[in-house]
Design brief:
The complex is a heterodimer. Helix content of chain A is 31%, strand content 19%. Chain A contains five helices and six strands; from the N terminus they run βαββαβαβαβα. In chain A, strand 2 and strand 3 form a beta hairpin. In chain A, helix 2 packs parallel to helix 3. In chain B, 28% of the residues lie in helices and 30% in strands. In chain B, the strands form two sheets. In chain B, strands 2, 3, 4, 5, 8, 9 and 10 form a seven-stranded antiparallel sheet that branches. In chain B, strands 1-12-11-6-7 form a five-stranded antiparallel sheet. Classes of the chains: A alpha/beta, B alpha+beta. Chains A and B meet through loops of A and helix 1 and helix 5 of B.
Chain lengths: 227, 237
């Protein structure tokens, strides 16, 4: 029997994935239906990749109505059952930024032996809660969240490109003109995560800032000058 | 005389890709004391392996110079300059490595040097001290000796070490998976179980431990090295 095994962790190093999902009233209909299906597909794809290793962890923060909540607390994929997302009310995105920041900065929930997290924000509109601007700044400049891989998807005509660029920190902002493209975006985020698990260095993202033109996600690249 | 030993193995990822171990370690013992160091080449750099090996070679020389009377304030610059001068392959910017080192004199005076992640743990009697990066956010965050810029190693004097004190150096492939609450027992195991073994058998045993690492999904290269101050055998219970 290995002697040193008495002194080493039996849990793998976490690779956290955090989704910030808009479930405001405007997401009702096709958008929320596709979102539910796409998140379920993402969960299954990540499970298949993780193969029970317990490394990939998924968390879901939703924002709609009066507050943001941890719809799925960040944790291993085994045994996770996602309750359906329901669209309702306003867009308290600032609260979601604050929740995400506190979660990522919490070294009890996300120890320093973790790999850098992936955060994906999906929204079809503007934040409606006061203080969102400061909450966004706090998130993207915080010690740990600033090192996360951040992706953003604007859904529809009312999404705010400038805010999403501030969130992602670079050109990884995409736009879905149709609800079905939500699936394409989440498939892309899933791919970046699975690539990291297969990488020689999971903390060095292999994802190019500008995806190949032939890939489905390239169709969603958002250049404001095009609109 | 102090006892030193260690082992290093390529991690599963490098093994799978047919790539060499990018960790390195080295030891020295003589009348003036003992020195031990480990280094972890930064994987994103082309010459990570050379970076680590040069750091160990130069680091041992620098630590030996302290054993022979060099001022501690001169060590960081000597290590950085000597490391850069020792790099042979490719441009400087393609070299980077972490570095952990310790030197102990026969009178118990000791010094540690560190740049980057990994862990130096010192068990002196029943008291444990840890020397590691304080501001590390996630696993891959680290400072390093870098060919064309970079951080200078930190140098610290240790409290006087008694007989049978244990100093462990570990690269992050080992350190990040250690249960910190069990560190004292780990160091005692290194001293009391591995220390008394004949050198070849001890190396094989430690190598085997690194090969059969218990943490699921581990991928990194692994290096663990130990220094035990003189007369440890008399204290083995």
């Amino acid at each position: 029997m290995s002697l040193l095994s008495n002194f080493t962790s039996r849990t793998p190093r976490p690779l956290p994935v955090l989704l910030l999902l808009d479930v405001s009233g405007s997401m009702d209909g096709d958008k929320i239906e596709v979102l539910n299906g796409s998140v379920a597909e993402m969960l299954q794809a990540l499970r298949d990749e993780d193969a029970g290793a317990g490394s990939i962890q998924l968390g879901v923060i939703t924002f709609g109505g009066e507050r943001a909540v941890e719809h799925l607390p960040l944790g291993p994929l085994d045994g996770v059952e996602l309750s359906p997302l329901r669209a309702n009310g306003r867009t308290p995105m600032g609260q979601a930024f604050e929740l995400a920041r506190r979660l990522i900065e919490d070294r009890d929930r996300l120890p320093s032996r973790s790999y850098r997290p992936t955060i994906a924000l999906l929204s079809d509109g503007l934040p409606t809660d006061s203080g969102w601007d400061e909450a966004l700044s706090d998130l993207v400049t915080s010690e740990r969240a600033s090192k996360a891989s951040r992706f953003a998807l604007g859904i529809g005509a009312d999404a705010d490109h400038e805010m999403l660029v501030r969130f992602s920190g670079d050109s990884r902002v995409y736009r879905a003109e149709e609800a079905s493209q939500i699936r394409t975006f989440l498939q892309y985020v899933t791919m970046t995560v699975t690539q990291r698990t297969q990488s020689d260095d999971p903390d060095t993202p292999d994802t190019p800032d500008t995806p190949d033109k032939d890939t489905p996600i390239a169709d969603l690249s958002w250049d404001p000058q095009d609109y | 005389m102090a006892e030193t030993f260690g082992a290093s193995r390529a991690g599963p990822r490098h093994q799978h890709l047919g790539l060499p171990n990018e960790d390195a370690w080295g030891q020295w013992r003589g009348r003036s004391g003992a020195a031990l160091c480990v280094a972890d080449g930064v994987g994103s750099k082309t010459h990570a392996r050379e970076s680590a090996h040069v750091a160990v070679a130069v680091g041992l020389d620098v630590l030996k110079s302290w054993l022979r009377g060099r001022e501690p304030t001169e060590l960081a610059r000597a290590l950085t300059a000597g490391w850069r001068a020792g790099l042979c392959s490719g441009p400087a910017r393609q070299h980077a490595t972490t570095f952990l080192g310790v030197a102990v004199r026969p009178d118990g005076n000791a010094i540690v040097m560190r740049c980057g992640d990994g862990l130096i743990a010192v068990l002196n009697g029943d008291h444990l001290d840890r020397y590691e990066e304080a501001d590390r956010s996630f696993m891959s965050d680290t400072h390093a000796l870098i060919g064309n810029k970079g951080w200078s190693p930190a140098t610290s004097a240790l409290p006087i070490l008694g007989a049978g004190a244990v100093i462990m150096l570990a690269t992050d492939g080992v350190a990040d998976d250690l249960l910190t609450e069990h560190l004292p027992d780990l160091l005692r195991t290194l001293r009391d179980h591995f220390g008394p073994l004949p050198a070849p058998r001890r190396w094989r045993a430690l190598s085997h431990e690194l090969k059969d690492w218990a943490t699921p999904g581990h991928v990194d290269d692994k290096t663990l090295a130990t220094l035990i101050t003189a007369r440890h055998r008399e204290n083995v219970s």
